[in-house]
Amino acid sequence: MNPTNTLMNISKQNTEKILDEIKKLAKSIGRETRLMGLCGTHSQTIAQYGLKNLLPRNIKLVAGPGCPVCVTAREDIDAVIGLALAGMPLAVYGDTLAVPGSTESLENARQKGADIKIIYSIKEALKEQKIKPDLVFFGVGFETTAPMTAWAIKQGLRVYSAHKFFPPAMAALLKNKKIKIDGLIDPGHVSAIIGESPYKKFEIPQVITGFEPEDVLMAVLMLLNQIAEGKRDLENEYGRVVKKNGNEKAVNLINEVFEQCDAEWRGIGLIKNSGMKIRKKYSACDAKIKYRRTIAEILSRTKTKKTACRCGEILQGLIEPNQCPLFKKICAPENPFGACMVSIEGTCNIEYKYAR
Amino acid sequence: MCLAIPGKIISIKKQNATVDFRGIKKEVDISLVSAKPGDYVVVHTGFAVGKLDKKSANESYKYFDEYIKTKHGKNT
Predict the structure, then answer these.
(1) How many structural domains comprise chain A?
(2) Residue-wise pLDDT tens digits, A293-337
(3) Is A120 at the interface with chain B, CB within 8 A?
(4) Residue A2: is its pLDDT beyond 90?
(5) In a domain, A259, yes or no
(6) Which residues touch B69 (CB under 8 Å, ≥6 apart)?
């Protein structure tokens, strides 16, 4: 049995009790209420257990930009594909492999003979670098994943950083007047690293929650209760993992190795101070500096194919996947047009697999 | 991508711990947490990024209990 389940001691009977309370609150609120999940892993829980179908009609769960693979800029994908095709050995996390760049994916490059190794732990990249000194690690991910990359940079790993800070994206979302959201389900494991304080400046009901279906339902209940009472608080339902101050060692590692820079989020655009750039002190490990001429040349010759893909709007909760003209017609997990269809945490991929 | 898997620490050698993930044992770096054998940790890309706190494990249910008490004046 999953220890999180055992420790939570929540049974099906309790789930039904939570749902009953949600129904009462939904009825008293009356109007349509939109709650945005900011974590790809939450989207998976919601789809896998069919939670959307259990909720009252006026309570909508929408997905936000919580999948780091999906928001990685096309340019970054193009650059690492170009490096790999120019003969640089690459180490990548598996979820980046099928993401389409402007003309192809890392998987296509691999089929053409590029040396691309899939790793599960950053330590495998360090081991690989001992055999292949030119190796570049493609660093993708939010605060959950970045501390390990920072740790490896301190050990001498060369990295192309596409890492991102998550709270600046939340600020950008909340500024966008087109996006109508009544409450946020904050990410669980990003929060395990950064703690509660970075969220406090956002004036909207928020709940940090875990990944069991009961956790997500509890977050819905807590948000609806705040909305019904007119509150805009930050609550933490995932206290068994997320501490108030997060993981200070991990945050210090990120700040020691990375500094903030503006970064492009695929489909969304430039978000100020949301990128993690390798600090000057570690520039010997920065692939963007070592290979800057090669990268500039790769990007200047890459032509982007225009598609009708609407991933950008999907990532901001503006439309649902079935409102995209490509969804399920020509865009499918085996033939993805946008990153949302590639990653197992992408909104379109999840919708494709689980929609009934 | 931010998926982190909970497992139980079996033994520790310097910064490396052997962690049991429902029967599968793996080596995990625990330099980012303070943990001892018997603790549950959540593991992401080969590192323990947080500890699963048994004391607050039932907090979510406690919240529900309190919620019911304030709303309906009774225990579940």
Answers:
(1) 2
(2) 999 999 998 877 777 888 888 888 888 899 999 999 889 988 888
(3) yes
(4) no
(5) yes
(6) B75
The reply to whether residue B64 touches residue A218, judged by beta carbons under 8 angstroms, is: yes
- The edge-to-edge listing of strands for the beta sheet with A90-93 is A116-119, A90-93, A136-139, A159-161
Is the CB of residue A201 less than 8 Å from the CB of residue A232? no
Give the pair of three-digit tokens for residue A336. 């993805």
Give the gap in angstroms from C-alpha B24 to the nearest C-alpha of chain A: 13
Residues of B in contact with A147 (CB under 8 A): 32, 47, 49
Among A121, A159, A220, most B C-beta atoms within 10 A, so best to mutate, is A121
Q: What is the mean pLDDT of residues B3-19?
A: 91
A contacts of B64 (beta carbons < 8 Å): 14, 17-18, 21, 218, 221
Residue B63: which of A237, A242, A247 has the nearest Cβ? A237
Q: How many CB atoms lie within 10 A of CB A159?
A: 27
What pLDDT, on a 0 to 100 scale, did the predictor assign at position A50?
87
Does residue A110 lie within any of the structural domains?
A: yes
Q: Taking CB atoms and an 8 Å limit, are A253 and B32 in contact across chains?
A: yes
Number of domains in chain B: 1
Residue A334 structural domain: 311-354
Q: Which long-range contacts (CB under 8 A, 24 or more apart) does B37-42 make?
A: B37/B9, B37/B10, B37/B11, B37/B12, B38/B8, B38/B9, B39/B8, B39/B9, B40/A3, B40/A7, B40/B6, B40/B7, B40/B8, B40/B9, B41/B6, B41/B7, B41/B9, B41/B17, B42/A189, B42/A192, B42/A241, B42/B4, B42/B5, B42/B6
* pLDDT confidence band for A8 (50 / 70 / 90): very low
Residue A197 has which token pair? 């304080």
Partner A contacted by B75 (CB < 8 A): no
Range of the domain at B46: 5-72
Please tell me the predicted confidence (pLDDT) of residue A1: 35
> Residue A252 maps to which CATH number?
3.40.50.11740
pLDDT tens digit sequence for A164-217: 999 999 999 999 888 899 999 999 999 999 999 999 999 999 999 988 888 999
A297 with A319, same domain? no
Within an 8 Å CB–CB cutoff, is residue B10 touching chain A? no
Establish, for the pair of chains A and B, how many residue pairs have beta carbons separated by less than 8 Å.
Answer: 144
Using the Cβ of A151 and the Cβ atoms of chain B, whether some distance falls under 8 Å is answered with yes
pLDDT higher than 70, residue A281 = yes
